User: What shape does this take?
Amino acid sequence: MTDSTISFLDPEVQKCPYGAYRELRKDGPVYFDESCGFYMVFGYDEIRQITADPATFSSVTGLLLVKDTGEQEHLNKVFEEHGFLPVNTLVVADPPIHTFHRSLVDKAFNAIALKRMEAFLEITVGRIVDQFLGKGGGDFYTDVAAILPSYVIADQMGFSSDDFEKFRTWTDAVVAEANPNNTPAEQLEITRTICDLHQHISEKADYFLLNPRPCLLSDMVHADVDGQRLTRQELVSIFVILIAGAHDTTTSSLCSALYRLAKDRELQDRLRENSTLITKFVEEVLRFDSPVAGLFRRATCDTMIGEIPIAKDSLLMIRYGAANRDPKMFEHPDTFNIDRTNASRHLSFGSGPHTCVGNLLARAELRIAVANMLKKTREIRLKDGEASVSWLTQFIVYGPNRLELAFSPA
Assistant: This one.
């Protein structure tokens, strides 16, 4: 039998959950974590089954965006007075609402828009990397990984460069809002900051209604399905989710990618010699160091996962990081191998109806940033070995939150 006292609320487990996954998987693909009251699902096939069945496993859990907590009533009054009351959209919505929202967002994330975003990325990534290398390196998390997604999503919302510092504050608040350890006072301050973001999004939406321009927010303001458009409340909630998702996925994966490179000089040289391998490298980073540890589902009826009975209204956390190391799917899953033939089948962007709408943009950010760092350096290394790195202690997001790098210029 495995150790039934393992808790995913333990900061040491959160820093590196893979040992816990290996230990708990011995007893099967599902583990009930008594410390938080969630069923943790580890199996690749089981998670694919759950994500494909929103009728049985709902994304509306009361844990994210529209929260079901004792203090939420007070916070909702703040939202109603100063911003917009959150509504369930995208990752925390079920069909048919999710289907409607997703169809509108997909229209905005079309091929033309993605090409436009990639052109912006080439310029922006180059500037950020040049600034980082120009000062001799430092904390890659703070100086590159944490700011790149903010620049990208700010641009796609039509914000000017003058708004960027405010946007960083808003992004930090959106990410912090999901932290279950916030005090009531901290949560109230976060809510007020997010309300400022709501108002700014709404003002920009008003402007784009009369003055369309090529950006994601303008596209979504004008998009419709059979004549139906997003309400302002829905539009604001969708962009809050997009901001959180962009930060969590790209920031964590970009730090993980540079960490893997800094530890392996031979891998760096191989990618410099053959840049076409960078795409495979990015997919293996996403598999090996899943940036989103997991997301939540609620059982809508009594059901089964494998041989484990799950009662109606039970809360589950589908652990993408565990699925990406499932030996039934990935041979030698704890070995980092860019020659892996099925790495792109990872679940780091989810699967089924809720596959991340921004996954192509996130992949482009990672690919372009890695290529820039390799092209402009001869060697990338950890400044002080493993002491150069610290890891998030977070229930949902996994990855480094400090990465001190040194380098030799090309």
